[in-house]
Amino acid sequence: MLDEMKRTDLFHEYYAQWVRIYKEGAIRKVTLDKYLMTQAWLEKLIPDLKICEITRITYQQLLNDYAKNHERQTTMDFHHQLKGAILDAVDEGLIERDPTRKVIIKGKPPAEKKIKYLNQFELHTLLLTLDLGRDVNWDWFILLVAKTGMRFSEALALTPKDFDFPRQSLSISKTWDYKGDGGFLPTKNKSSIRKIEIDWQTVVQFSELLRGLPENEPIFVKKDKVYNSTVNDVLERHCNAAKVPVISIHGLRHTHASLLLFAGVSIGSVARRLGHASMTTTQKTYLHIIHELENQDVDLVMRSLSSLS
Questions:
Q1: Which CATH number fits domain 2-91: 3.60.21.10, 1.10.150.130, 1.10.443.10, 2.40.160.20?
Q2: Nearest in space to 49 (alpha carbons), one of 14, 75, 23
């Protein structure tokens, strides 16, 4: 237990116990893995630092050393994963004063990340190469992600019961644990629980495809384990066949959002359809597209003004 720890024990050992007691079983595995990664970095950066030696200076130096190889946001996450354990150590009298006070977060400048997506013509050409037969396959999966913008794990968790064909909608209320042992998991956040409107053609296609399938069992997951790379390989073959840029399944989600934005759909509506926690996430992700649209708006304004006499 944590109360058996002494001030002279190693800090990374204290942190390991803290994670085991307070985090295991209380947070999702994907989040727990981040805490375990932080623990691994502590063992690498401060293998011999004792709990009582954690001061503002030693803690700032730890963050500085971590920041040498990480972007600022990643360093901020590292700090937040440590802070809870450190404040508990302060409360328990293992550390005299809060060493996290007034820390300065550094880090490498973020790498420019331009998302990969297809334009409308390229997507149409890609979809024409799909083999949409009478049985469920990964081509149907690709079509559905392209039409809805769902996350990979959300699409894997779909069951026939999630389709409301009369109302032309699809309910997203769970994800599939494809990184672990399988099974249903909660959505990424509360905003991810949503209904997505689907077009009439998708309604017709999937109402026929899903006929007779068990209502509460995943449509696309069979007995074998599902790998993201497997589906991306299928998509890559279709991209090559269609002679369009190769994108990933996540790139299909970007494609879906991009086409909606270029069609004039509001950022708020796109955010809700994608299940983003806020419009800020959507704006940050699709900033370059929004800039393109703003440039188009400026051109439109100038043409409108020049026509006035």
A1: 1.10.150.130
A2: 14
